């Protein structure tokens, strides 16, 4: 289910003056896709029968606790149009970030694919032709050639077993992604990657600040806001530090001081939060801090991708070059033995 599309459509209809019931009824009647029609109809029937929108959505959609809390706050304050708009914007920002990262990864992925394809061509064409020469001369082949020959033999001797092994690995990785523990492990591994770790950390910090801003703007109390905002962060170490901020605030510490003590956020965030506390405009300051972090993150992504593409190109050239040089050196050695 495209949750962003749902909230964008409902926000548009609420802005036209329709009630929540009427918005979902009209959405169900005008939606061209049947699967969305039935979903809108279910939500409409639930709300028409007296169920709150927050409960109706949480029971039928895979929404995170932050969205549910925002909807509850919007229902209590009577600001459903603004609340649904804020949720729609939140999902749109997440989609934009994913799109930017995916677009930036296109060229590096293409280079890596070319590298893998070149190695496969060498493995299945050049290696079988060269291996008998070394065997006939009684000369040990180069290390790289031996590795590729072993890989070639494994794939050709047991093709079905090799295919099943690859499929099992792919399925296992997919199952790992579906579990919370698996995602946490992959996220922790990503944070340790040079270049990539700071980018992922900045994205997580931005999402935390944006979520906290939305919750406070919609009159959710500070304790619940800090708790829910921390839960959207996928990295256990960072989430624990953010929960420490909540604990410090509950003891009476100002938010800015709690952030400094935890060390979970950068100095940009601290400066914005301090300014927001002094001006009594904390939600706006948090949103501005998220925007500033996003700008810095974009610079980091651009810098990382600028370095990644040449790095992959160099690795590809060195790998194939080392293989060619080692093969040529071994062939020249065989030729010297034949001349003797």
Shape: elongated
What low-confidence regions span 5 or more consecutive residues with pLDDT below 50? none
Number of separate strands = 0
Number of helices: 15
| SSE topology string | HHHHHHHHHHHHHHH
Largest sheet: none
Rg is: 28 Å
Given the helix and strand composition, which structural class is it? Answer: mainly alpha
Walk me through what this model shows.
The chain has 340 residues and is an all-alpha fold. It has two domains: 89 residues, Receptor-associated Protein (Up-down Bundle), CATH 1.20.81.30; 242 residues, no CATH class. 86% of the residues lie in helices and 0% in strands.
SSE layout and pairing:
Elements: H1 3-15, H2 20-30, H3 34-48, H4 53-60, H5 65-77, H6 80-137, H7 143-157, H8 159-178, H9 180-191, H10 196-217, H11 222-231, H12 236-250, H13 255-262, H14 267-279, H15 282-339
Helix pairs in contact: 1-2, 1-6, 2-3, 3-4, 4-5, 5-6, 6-7, 6-10, 6-15, 7-8, 8-9, 10-11, 10-15, 11-12, 12-13, 13-14, 14-15
Keywords:
2 domains; Receptor-associated Protein; mainly alpha; about 85% helix; about 350 residues
């Amino acid at each position: 289910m495209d949750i962003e599309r749902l909230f964008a459509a409902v926000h548009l209809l609420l802005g036209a003056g329709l009630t929540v019931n009427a918005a979902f009824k009209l959405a169900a009647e005008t939606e061209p896709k049947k699967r969305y029609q039935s979903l809108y109809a279910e939500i409409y029937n639930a709300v028409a029968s007296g169920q709150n929108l927050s409960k109706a959505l949480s029971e039928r959609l895979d929404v995170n606790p932050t969205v549910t809390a925002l909807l509850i706050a919007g229902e209590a304050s009577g600001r459903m149009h603004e609340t649904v708009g804020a949720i729609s914007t939140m999902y749109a920002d997440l989609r934009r970030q994913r799109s930017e990262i995916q677009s930036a990864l296109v060229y590096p992925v293409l280079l890596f694919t070319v590298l893998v394809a070149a190695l496969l061509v060498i493995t299945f064409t050049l290696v079988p032709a060269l291996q008998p020469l070394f065997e006939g001369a009684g000369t040990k082949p180069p290390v790289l050639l031996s590795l590729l020959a072993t890989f070639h033999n494994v794939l050709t001797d047991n093709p079905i077993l090799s295919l099943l092994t690859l499929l099992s690995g792919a399925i296992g990785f997919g199952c790992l992604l579906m579990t919370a523990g698996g995602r946490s492990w992959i996220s922790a591994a990503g944070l340790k990657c040079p270049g990539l770790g700071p980018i992922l950390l900045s994205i997580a910090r931005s999402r935390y600040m944006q979520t906290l801003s939305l919750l406070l703007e919609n009159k959710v109390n500070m304790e619940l806001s800090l708790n829910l905002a921390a839960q959207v962060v996928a990295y256990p170490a960072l989430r624990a530090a953010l929960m420490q901020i909540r604990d410090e605030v509950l003891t009476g510490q100002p938010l800015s001081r709690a952030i400094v003590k935890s060390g979970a956020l950068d100095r940009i965030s601290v400066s914005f939060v301090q300014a927001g506390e002094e001006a009594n405009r904390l939600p706006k300051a948090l949103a501005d801090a998220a925007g500033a972090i996003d700008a810095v993150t974009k610079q980091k992504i651009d810098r990382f991708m600028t370095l990644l593409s040449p790095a992959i190109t160099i690795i590809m050239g060195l790998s194939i070059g080392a293989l060619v040089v080692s093969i040529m050196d071994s062939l020249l050695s065989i030729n010297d033995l034949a001349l003797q």
